[in-house]
Amino acid sequence: MLIIGAKGFAKEVLEVLHQNNTLSNITFFDDINEDVVGELYNKFPILKSIEEVQKYFTTTSNKFTIGIGNPVLRKKLQDKFTQLGGEFTSTISSKAAIGNYGNTINEGCNIMTGVVITNDVFIGKGTLVNLNCTIGHDCKIGEFVEMSPGVHISGNCEIGAYTNIGTNATILPKIKIGENVIIAAGAVVTKDVPDNCMVAGVPAIIKKELAPLTF
């Protein structure tokens, strides 16, 4: 599998693959950081060009995952590497507790160590559920949502695509969050939130409007 990125969060994705005993042919891609070259941990090759990626996809494996945060950037990287022939692939930690009934986790998700997902949860493509997050029953999470460590989403919630939820934020039951929303760290969301805004506080209130996303 190719991990897009070779710093920060990419190293946590590597740990998930280690936990799952799936380290065969793990390779990283980083064409941004000049100090990242050769092999990560003297073991895992780091590709530096699109030509190397295309060769990897055709000769080794076309599976890739994204080791970078930021919902919009994750979407753009997914588009780019899928067009190169890659297969967007989820990485799900063996140390996550995922319910046995009614769950759907779509392609390209990163489900990290300590996550708890109960039953009848839908998670859209490319979503990142970081360390020690919890998602209650009957929730629907949109595409390319990012949950920072320690987020708690209660049952029967809906989270719109491209929403970024800060560390230790809590969303109370039956709340609907729109698309392209930023929820600040530590916020407690007690009522529905519309599209394209940032909320913060306890209880969370709208602090500013955001420009709608364009791709």
Alpha-carbon distance between the termini? 27 Å
Strand order in space, largest sheet = 7-10-13-16-19-22-24-25
Q: Which spans have pLDDT < 50 for at least 5 consecutive residues?
A: none
Q: Please, what is the average pLDDT?
A: 97
Percent strand: 25-35%
User: Main sheet?
Assistant: 8 strands, mixed
User: How big is the Rg?
Assistant: 17 Å
Structural class: alpha/beta
Shape category: globular
Helices and strands, in order, run as EHEEEHEHEEEEEEEEEEEEEEEEEEEE
Instruction: Report helical residue fraction.
Output: 10-25%
Q: What's the number of extended β-strand segments?
A: 25
Helix tally equals 3
Would you write up a description of this structure?
With about 220 residues, the protein is of the alpha/beta class. The chain has 3 helices and 25 strands. The strands form 4 sheets. The protein has an 8-stranded mixed β-sheet, covered by helices on one side. The longest helix is centred in the middle third of the chain and has 13 residues. It is globular, with a radius of gyration of 17 Å. It starts with a strand and ends in a 6-residue tail after the last strand. The model has no long low-confidence stretch (mean pLDDT about 95).
